[in-house]
Known about the structure:
Layout: E1 3-10, E2 18-25, H1 27-40, H2 44-58, H3 69-79
Antiparallel strand pairs: 1-2
Amino acid sequence: MYYTHIINQRNEEQTNVLRxxxxxxxxxxxxxxxxxxxxxxxxxxxxxxxxxxxxIDHRGxxxxxxxxxxxxxxxxxxxxxxxxxxxxx
Length: 89
């Protein structure tokens, strides 16, 4: 089962109008995400809005996304047809 967070974003032209976005998380991820946001004193929606704003400000991810050597090797094996096929969650 997945849980959905609805994110509200203000439309720049109409400050009173919000747009919704649905996200799906596994129950474990949602529980941990909610707990961390609570410890930070913010709502999960506020945390996602912070990320979205940073994504916009950085014109991409506000952190480095890289492949480890092990992941790179597994990706190459997958492309060569040597990897294992799994169902998506």
